[in-house]
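[User]
Um, tokens okay?
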Amino acid sequence: MKRGIVFIFIILLLLPSVAATISISGPSDALYNIGDTIDVEGYVFQEEELSGFLQIVVDCSNTSFPRQLVPVDLNAGEQQTFSQLGIPDITVTSSMGGSCQLEADILAGGIPLESTSSDIFSVTRELNGLFSLDKTQVQMGDAFKLSGTITKMNEEKITGTAEIYFEQEGIEYLIDSVSVYGGTISYTYDSSNTYPGNYDLNLVVRDSYGNEQRFETIETFEIVDELSVIIDLEEDTLYPGEMVIIYGSVKNINQELVNQATVEITVDNEELTSTSLISGSFTYEVEANLLIESGAHTIAIEVNDIDGNTGTDTATFEILPVETTLENSLSNTSLDPEDILEFEILLYDQAEELMDGSLLLEVRDSAGDLASEKQVASSTELSYKIPQFATPGTWTIKSSIGEIQDEDTIIVNEIEDIQMWVEGEILYIRNMGNTRYREDLQVLVSGAGYDYTLTKKKSIGVNETIEINLADEVPSGNYAIELPTGNALLNVDNVEVVNGTKRYNLGWLYILLAVVFIGGLSYLVYGRVPRKPLEPTKKRFGKKTPTVTMADKPKKEKKPSLTFEKEKGIKDFRERVVKDIKATEAKIEKKEAMKQQRADRGKLATVLGKAEPNTAAQAPQKQESGNFFKLFE
């Protein structure tokens, strides 16, 4: 036992002295198919005499495929190539796949002396293919040919099979399976009894080694079942009793005449006859009987060939009519300005059938004046836009052709419409309605803690515009402007007035009235009433003077009392002042009431006076309501 351990130890000590050099070049390709041969090139060199084995291993995605050991006997300093050593080429098998590498080992006594690896290469089952169709648009019943070449990745042509599929709207149909020889595929398809439409051509190809490739949408083609039918008439305008002569020809999508097909002829959806093609053409006569209706009539031709292809075409001829009656067909008889009246003018022939014709159309307003006149076609959808400022009332629509005419009336409604806008400091108000605007115009200008009501012209004519210079009406500041109308509340925000009028504080008016009142009262009391001197015999203090009765005094003529006159003058003055102050107070109360009503209803009301300030810091000192009037109570 001890001797064996010593022997192995001695061998390990001697191994470095017999180390060899091994090298691999290649493989020559980076991609291989199953069945391909990998050529292995390399050499082994030994400085000292060597007797051992060379092993090649194919390592693919962590799966190894060892090759058979090859003996190696080298003299000192000798080099031998893999081909000299007789190492065979490596064939790629179906078990190999993915990323691979060749590994070479020198073994002596079962122990590796030297190892090396080749370049990395890949193993795949994919194939290359190049295909074409001789037609991409095929008349149903015709044949088309598929040609192509299929190779492995090294351009080696394969031998195998190919499955042919047609795909339409996501559904794939297996058509056939054909053999592939020498990498060539050739297949002819007969499209008879095939459903027409667009198709994608797909292939699945397999070779004898197990390589497989699916080729998606290698070509797109269309199978067409339509024939081109061309017909013409010798005359297309006839009188009843005349003959309609029809000429026609039929061609396929290649513009070749179709020799075998049946032709069905109908007039106004009534089948008349069937005939056959002669060298791709046909001729037929149709009689227009005496009772045929006036106007356009349609001839329809339908062609069917033996492969299921069809084609149709139509032509029209006209029976000349005789004008008899007119009818105005109106969509509406009550319209507003700028509404559009949709209507038709129907012209009937002797058989009470509609016919074409050029008619004179007249539109007259409520005053009988001509508003529009033009030539129009009968049985055509027409429209007439009521003018924006059309006078309200009854309008007339009249159509005529020769001595035949029809007349109808419409009602143009009365519309009130006011527009308001601001340019600079000028406020514009325009009557956009079709009647005079007679309501009061009260414009509320709100801003800078105040509200102002501007009452202007009460009547605005049609399409008339009035201007209000805001600088002449309100003090400078930023305002919101509102105008209530009978239909809506108009408003404009952020109107800047730069050079406005001077603002007067209503509180100073009360002070001024109070000063005038007190001054006038003082004047009446102390200025106009003279003082009466005391009689010498009477004393203001002391013993009371004896009373003299009325019977003891002689009767005198009664004079007006000066005290009465004074009191009467003061009373009249007070009443006048109170009346003025109450009138002012009533305006203020009316303004507040209208503001409250506007807030409740969401509509503008006429407001006078000063608005409530926005903040306590900005608000001017407010007078207490009613204090001033206590002077008279």
Summary: The two ends are 145 Å apart (CA to CA). The chain has six domains: 20-124, 128-224, 228-319, 326-412, 418-497, 505-530+562-610+625-633.
